[in-house]
Task: inverse folding
């Protein structure tokens, strides 16, 4: 079984793959955020999720690369989904 660190290391072995992955992720998240810019709490949820992801990484004693590439993108994705459902159902 591989750990998160070994998965990150395999991506970091190819700088072009890392650049393509980060670029695609940023493009998708930026487009989604732009199209849902009317959601009132989206920015606060994203900032809170990134902070929670960074705190979880510190508690798990992960290095910065693992947190940045392994935890934070999933936290941002989850925050955007929660914000979308929150806006549609609650406010």
Result:
């Amino acid at each position: 079984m591989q750990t998160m660190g070994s998965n990150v290391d395999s991506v970091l072995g190819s700088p072009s793959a890392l650049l393509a992955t980060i670029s695609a992720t940023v493009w998708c998240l930026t487009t989604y955020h732009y199209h849902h810019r009317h959601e009132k709490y989206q920015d606060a949820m994203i900032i809170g999720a990134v902070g929670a992801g960074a705190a979880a990484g510190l508690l798990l004693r992960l290095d910065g690369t693992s947190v940045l590439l392994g935890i934070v993108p999933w936290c941002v994705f989850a925050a955007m989904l929660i914000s979308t459902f929150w806006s549609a159902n609650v406010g």
About this structure: The two ends are 43 Å apart (CA to CA). The CA atoms of residues 5 and 62 lie 8 Å apart. The chain has four helices and no strands. The longest helix spans residues 64-89.
